[in-house]
Amino acid sequence: MTKKLFILLDYRNTFYSSTKEVAGSMNTSELKRLFKNRGYSVEIERFSNVDFHSDKYAGSFVLYQSAEDPDLRYKDYIEDILLGLKINKAILIPDFYKFRAHHNKVFMEILRDSSRFPLIQNIISEKYGTFDEFEGSFSGNRLPIVIKPGSGSKGSGVRLVRSKKEALHASRYIARSYSFINLKRFFNGILSGKGFKSISNYRRKFIVQNFISDLSHDYKILIYDNRFYVLRRGNRPGDFRASGSGILSFPEEVPDDLLNFADKVFTFFNVPFISIDVAIRDNEYFLIEFQFLSFGQYAVEHSSFFFRKGTLGWEKISEHPNPERIFVDAVDTYIKKQSQAKGS
């Protein structure tokens, strides 16, 4: 039986990303050809062309992407389309929760907490929707701490604070969202005689995490099924952050325990691909952040090898990477595994 698969493009006709050009995209014609060679019937559509009157999506696989546009406005639109497809019984790859966690550190940490997966619980996060909530509950007993905006990449906006005063200042700055509606309500309250209760001017969500000290670098690991691409990221001089530093290298030897940790995380989340940021201190592994779609492809496109677990352990495999083939192989293997699991 032919498997039906849809690939959804954004308004720029792009799908996922590529470092080959600015705002680059995977080659969707090549994706379609490769999927057809594996027995899929493939349709490529824009998000805006999804027809919710049609029953063609029911039971079909849907590959889609996310967006990191300012204020996440287009991502919000994509969310509407994906929920509509779920109503129409489409099979989203990855599932909707994984999409929700993209560019959304609050929900990413909710996924971590809700997973009950012991291996990744050594990062402890508090989640806030307003500065007011944080100010009312923060005692200053757990310092230093790291404060991160609800969205962002490359370490943007991330602050390390060592005092209560710094924590309140940083969180207040991150959460700022001034609204003129308060002024309107103030005057309306005076004129009506009903009084006035302001909304917060600090309503951008953020997270507060425990600080992992004494780190000089971390690892970004991209996993596509059985291919593990490892990128070492050095910290900026005098900075605690490795993300966005630009100090990058491809280590030809990495600890087996690092790859084993990455493999366990990948297996637990049950996805075709994943990007994880991992730090190591005193032989303890920390999953700093994780993404399930629309993550950067630098580690794949610029690496000349990957790691794979064989019968005798981990081995380094040389290759000239073909991102489209790697992507299709991972999705195809994932779909086959899910079908086998349902049939067992």
TrEMBL record:
Keyword Secreted belongs to the record: no
Keyword NADP: no
Gene Ontology MF term list: ATP binding; metal ion binding
Domain ATP-grasp, first and last residues per copy: 109-332
Signal sequence extent: none
The organism's place on the tree of life at top rank: Bacteria
InterPro entries, A to Z: ATP-grasp
Protein name: ATP-grasp domain-containing protein
